[in-house]
Amino acid sequence: MTTTKNAKDAKKSYVLFVFVIFVSFVVLLAACGSMTPAMTTAPSPAAQVPSPAPPPVAPPPASGPAVVSGTWAGMGADSFSPELMTWVVTQSGTTLSGTAQINAVDPADGTCGSCHKVKRGTLTGTLSGNAVTISMTFPAGGDVPTPICEASMTATGTVADRRITGTYTGSDTCEGIYSNGVIDLARQ
After folding, report:
1. Is 40 part of a structural domain of the chain?
2. CATH code, 97
3. Residue 180 region, left (φ>0) first, then alpha (ψ -120 to 50), else beta?
4. CA dist 100 to 32, 52, 70, 86, 165, Å?
5. 30 in a structural domain
6. Which residue of 32, 84, 95, 170 is most buried, as measured by CB atoms within 10 A?
7. Domain count, the chain
8. 23 and 111: one domain?
């Protein structure tokens, strides 16, 4: 009798197991596969609840002139020769002033640039937003290899990401015209 009872219990357990699996399968199908068309389409815009408006975005700050006060150093190069260039700039609003210095890239190479690209002078300029214009004047005299020569350069460029890049032209009373000049200076 114990064997018959065990067989009946096993059969009941099996039937219960199959029933639970079947019911689970039916519930799963009802939930996933038998949606009515009204349930499968997106709700109409009228039925949507509007989300709250995002907070107002503050307007960007008024664009004023870039800040260029400080020391700038880098390279310049023109039709005459390359040079190392350093500016020490003081800024008052959009007006610039300060000192300018150029040095030969290789002072011992024996070229004209090794002498004529060693100058000390002053700079003046203006800013408009991030656009900069600088005039450099290198007077005769001083402790330079060619003290009898005067030079001047005018640069226009852009201030961005701690750099001033641009172009320049100029002249030297002993060597003539500087043309096709380019500068790339970094804030020090």
Report:
1. yes
2. 2.40.128.120
3. left
4. 77, 57, 12, 6, 16
5. yes
6. 170
7. 2
8. no
Report how far residue 103's alpha carbon sits from residue 171's, in angstroms, rounded to the nearest whole number. Answer: 16
Together in a domain, 122 and 177: yes
Token pair of 167 as six digits: 């172009």
Digit-by-digit pLDDT tens for the chain (188 residues) are 556 666 677 667 666 665 656 555 544 445 444 444 444 454 455 555 555 666 666 555 556 778 999 999 999 999 989 999 999 999 999 999 999 999 999 988 888 888 888 999 999 999 999 999 999 999 999 888 889 999 999 999 999 999 999 999 999 999 899 999 999 999 99
- Indicate whether 121 and 157 sit together in one domain: yes
| Statement: the pTM of the whole predicted model exceeds 0.90 | no
